[in-house]
Design brief:
The protein is of the alpha/beta class. The chain has helices at residues 16-21, 108-111, 127-138, 157-161, 165-174; strands spanning 4-8, 13-14, 25-31, 48-60, 63-79, 86-100, 117-120, 125-126. Helix 2 links the parallel strand 6 (86-100) and strand 7. The protein is elongated, with a radius of gyration of 23 Å.
Length: 175
């Protein structure tokens, strides 16, 4: 299937059910600086993510299910939670998203499978918001280097030499 190429996906909006039913496809780049919900975890905001969004249909037991296949590739500079420096993170997303139309029950038996996640269908689904949400779900809970030292004064030798506030209180209690 060929994809429509768009230089910037930031303004792309789709009718998710129609997009999936038509098995449409769009691909392009998304500037990391546009993903404002990531700002707190990023050490730098430069670079781009390469994205591809394709609609698909599944015929199962005489019923048609509609979904989206999202592929995202890029490198993010996250803030290490130990040393506060930059730690590189290769963002690789290959997710199948089952669309659940308004008023339709969420398919419990399918949700038990790890093959896809369900999302509510929308007539005006922002591709950028969808990508940002999936990137947030992919990030490590605590980004950090495998072997970095914490900054001096935060759990370092300097702090250990000072008496604990509890030790000071215990000393007052003895007098």
């Amino acid at each position: 299937m060929s994809c429509r190429e768009e230089l910037d996906l930031a303004g792309a909006v789709i009718d998710s059910l129609k997009f999936a039913a038509d098995e449409d496809c769009v691909a392009g780049k998304l500037a990391i600086s546009r993903l404002t919900r990531l700002a707190d975890v990023l050490a730098r905001r430069d670079g781009e993510l390469e994205c591809r969004l394709a609609g698909y249909r599944i015929e199962k037991e005489g019923e048609t299910r509609l979904g989206l296949q999202l592929n995202v590739r890029g490198r993010l500079g996250l803030r290490c939670q130990r040393c506060l420096g930059e730690v590189e993170f290769d963002c690789v997303i290959d997710n199948r998203l089952l669309l659940v139309p308004p008023g339709v029950d969420w398919p419990e038996e399918e949700l038990e499978s790890d093959d896809f996640d369900a999302i509510p269908a929308s007539r005006e689904l922002s591709v950028m918001s969808l990508v940002e949400e999936e990137v947030l779900l992919t990030l490590p809970l605590v980004p950090r280097h495998a072997d970095c030292q914490s900054p001096i004064g935060i759990g370092g030798a300097e702090m250990e030499s000072e008496p604990s506030p509890f030790a000071v209180l215990a000393g007052l209690k003895k007098h």
